[in-house]
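User: Predict the structure for this protein chain, please.
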Amino acid sequence: MDPVSPAPAPVPASDAVSLDVSGLAYAYPDGHQALFGVDLTIGRGERVALLGPNGAGKTTLVLHLNGILTAGAGHVSVGGLPVATAHLAEIRRRVGIVFQDPDDQLFMPTVREDVAFGPANAGLRGPELDARVREVLERVGMADAADRAPHHLSFGQRRRVAVATVLAMRPEILVLDEPSSNLDPAARRELAEILRGLDVTVLMVTHDLPYALELCPRSVILSDGVIAADGPTRTLLCDDALLRAHRLELPFGFDPRSVALPDA
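Assistant: Here is the predicted structure, written as structure tokens:
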């Protein structure tokens, strides 16, 4: 018998919605169907983990959020704005993606120049640009590294700078791809503290179930191109049958019932 999925999360009022995905279906050119009618609504300021095994469709879904892929059926909107060709510049400002490898998005000689790159391309100049860069570097605890070369930083520091490059665009949604990967315990904790303090909507794609529990009050399980479960993270992680059915595993000895969670 299939496990019973938790009840869907309450749908926010339309004026408080950051992300609205409705009936999203997509097949790649080789005919592989990756998504089958995905429905997902995320309210402003929510932190939501997107969980699922490899091949579930997580990356395909994320690539629809800023128009890299275009829906075969259904629609996606961000802050009420449809993801469509006519709106791509604004959509890509609103949806900031932090890649798993920070070296994929850090390419300038200094941290300051990396963080300034996006806003400068959007037309910000002079004292306003300087203030924006300073503000976001302070938010991620990297203000003292503004004049350093990114490749001289630790991996955890580079990831925080990568977050800053996205925050500099003042996005509606921050999408994080495996944010805890390759981090030592201290860097993992530092990043979690930063993410909890942000005033943006966060969608975190991760296989790290304890990190999802620590950071995201709500989780969504995507499996075989459909939403298999949507509910409080602790509730989902306590459902052994649900996790087994979708190839999700907790670390040995980890009990989500015993974890004292920080305030959301």
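The chain is about 30% helix and 25% strand.
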